[in-house]
Known about the structure:
Elements: H1 5-9, H2 11-27, H3 33-36, H4 41-55, H5 67-71, H6 78-94, H7 99-110, H8 113-116
Amino acid sequence: MAQSVYSDIGGREAVEAVVTDFYDRVLADEQLVPFFEDMDMDELRAHQIQFISAVAGGPVEYTGDGMREAHAHLDIDEEDFDAVGAHLEEALRSNGVDEENVEAIMSEVVALKDPILDR
Ligand code: HEM
């Protein structure tokens, strides 16, 4: 039995690889790219690494805003959320995260849908 999803998938290096791949996919998606124009992608990437690490049970403190506050001004709809979720799932799989851990991380992420959509 693994100590945590975080250590099981390969710790910091693995999460960094997933997050890099995730934003490559998001920024190649013309439905999503307008949301990220003018954003500080270095800061976003750093916060996303912390956030995914914390969600996966890693020993990492997340120092960004809460999910409702971070997204409330963006007018995201359900289709946008599903598209971002699909890119994250693909990034996890294509970086060698096994099915059980993909499901564990994605169930945490899906639970954030209402706050991210500010509803
Ligand atoms: C699927 C689950 C999602 C997770 C786990 C997530 C996670 C995060 C995190 C951790 C931040 C950083 C907040 C901060 O720096 O304080 C953030 C910011 C941001 N997210 Fe998300 N997000 C998700 C979905 C989305 C969706 C669906 C969109 C748009 C289609 C989106 C667009 C953004 C943008 C543009 C920012 C930067 C906001 C700013 O700096 O003003 N996110 N997100």
